Amino acid sequence: MTERKVVLCIGAHPDDAEFLCAGTLALLRQKGWEVHIATLTPGDCGTVEYGREEISRIRTGEAAKSAAMLDAKYHCVGCDDVFIMYDRPTLVKVIELVRRVRPSLVFTLCAEDYMTDHVMTGRLAMTACFACGIVNVLTPGADPFEPVPHLYYADPAEGKDMYGRPVPTSHIVNIDSVMEIKEKMLACHESQRNWLLAHHGIDEYVNTMKEWSAFRGRQIGTAGAEGFRQHMGHAFPQSDLLSEELGPLVRKT
Length: 253
Fold this sequence. Notes:
It contains nine helices and eight strands. With 253 residues, the protein is of the alpha/beta class. It has one domain (6-252): LmbE-like (Rossmann fold). An eight-stranded mixed beta sheet has the order 3-2-1-4-5-7-6-8, with helices on both faces.
């Protein structure tokens, strides 16, 4: 078991965490973990009603309200929707975030997801974890630390890559006991219902989340679950912290 029980979720937009890993964050919170939820953008393009400044204010407020349900801290890195770049300025910001939070466990988006913002977020998070201890990568106000955090990628949307191929999991977490809090957290993002209906053709987006959770749940014989894939590359931890912490609630696949 780790001594430093701090978990950081790095998403692209407000509501990414709620769709993909809020249940697992809630389970970790119940076990005494300190929870941080970060988005790279304030969600400034997720609207058909408001200007960028107003929707950014609305959506970051919704994200903070959701995070508060887990006594979590919400962070916004400050990138623009659709323009998340894998470049030096953005990397420095994300590395600084990781160094300030000092997590032992990080969740992020799948780098094979349906949109580039999600793809870039997964890659930025991976490099930020790798670089957190590199002393010659300077982040004023945030000191390097070791070891590299355990890193897990959440499911892509609908569990498929941009070509429609299923993306495998390495872990499926039983979230039956915390589905109610996951649903309440997602419902905080009230501004997104009209946007998703207009742009994605999706209504009742809470039900969409519940349907995907039920799909993952059927794979392990539960009502609801969340899927993840652990980053096992060189220099990353090879132990399975998620299973160590959540025990029988985790099914390795």
